[in-house]
Amino acid sequence: MTTSESNINTSANEYPFARIIPADMIPLFRSLSKNEKATLARTRIALEFKKGEIIHKHGAHAANVFFVARGVVKSYMEISNKNLIIGIVPAGNFFGLTSLSVGNVYHYGTKALTDSTIYSYDIGVMKEMMRKNPLLATEVTDMLNAQLVSLYDRFFSLTQKQLPGRMADILLCLSREIYHTHNFELFLSRKDLAELTGISTESTIRILKDFREDGIIDVSNKHLQILKPEKLEKISATG
Amino acid sequence: MTTSESNINTSANEYPFARIIPADMIPLFRSLSKNEKATLARTRIALEFKKGEIIHKHGAHAANVFFVARGVVKSYMEISNKNLIIGIVPAGNFFGLTSLSVGNVYHYGTKALTDSTIYSYDIGVMKEMMRKNPLLATEVTDMLNAQLVSLYDRFFSLTQKQLPGRMADILLCLSREIYHTHNFELFLSRKDLAELTGISTESTIRILKDFREDGIIDVSNKHLQILKPEKLEKISATG
DNA sequence: CGCGAGCTTGACGTTGTTCAACTAGAGTGG
DNA sequence: CCACTCTAGTTGAACAACGTCAAGCTCGCG
Can you give the pTM of this predicted structure? Predict the structure, then answer.
């Protein structure tokens, strides 16, 4: 049943993010005591989501912090027909951390991009542990800072660059930070790509077409291969 | 020597953010022990900046966290002639916190918008204190989260709304979060406003003119008064 | 075999930037 | 005290970049 191409990757994880990360293997929690880990395990809930299902809504009461154990998830804002994807969260990362502080409401919605397994943690338990365990608090700080910094860069990209530059940025980002290869199956629709880059769906398609015609990428349906990363870099730089 | 107008505000603080906040009055540090406070005081440096002076450069080695004790400051990114103001930091707030985590380089530059007094703290000392004092770490988390959330909103505004909507957003934000009044003296040039909203300077001027002609605001030079906040709200909502 | 969602294309209109010119006010040096 | 310059602000006209609309296409799926 395997195609000739799949022979290159013979192992089981043909599809990335498909393996479930065990709850006791999450780096953030390694500094916890046995007792704390037990508390965490008791209050943890594992949830299954199908592709396209909503995990939590924008504006809903925020009672949990989430960890993506399997699959990929998107955070997004949807206001009067305008959609913006705030972030792509692949397996191995937390989301919903902002609800640890500001108000008691989620500031964005989250939806599964692929079938996913999500661990849900009680916000009170997390807060309490942060209060007792400075290492945990520091690591949460680090995660938030990483989010802030990458948001700054995207902020600049989306507000200061023209469409090709933005598209180049997002393709490079997907390749580098999410897939770790130049050759991958997109879990994003054209509309998702549009909402990530702040471009209309039609323009998104046109730019991908331009890139293809210039031999920079190879796209067909959901398959995407970056042929000339250095050209994308240049397009990203010139805006 | 006082003009008739200045009689309205007879007290010393005609100009907001002009009073220096004492170093031992910073809320973030109230949970520290006497010893810790002494260490902090020993390693703290107070710096004076004139309007327009650079406090730290984008990409510079990050060795400090800063607190605005007096004045107002802007964080900005400047890449190949494209400028974007990331945030306005009025007296009473920290900046440079991202350098507590990600790499050892500032991810943006900072410049004084008015004459300012800045306290500079050693990053190593801060990190060490966070490691020992969970309450401090938690409060830093809260500050970062607040930044993230407000950045999400600006992100949406700048990428999804048309120019009038963006301008309305920034005027409302300045009025509500910075000046706490509808009637104020701008410390921002038209160019600054442009770089805050991601609009060209010329368009910025034209939109302000439109708002004035519609009786929504009153602007002359640096003075700005919001006459019809409800109209700005509506413009903000319709995009 | 037909249906529908996602995708694609072209034509058109709008929005917003760019360019160039002009003005006003704030120093600065003679 | 006055010309001189320099910067910030302002205006108009031309142009480019994108979004919108409307139509057709394709592929997976029942």
Answer: 0.91
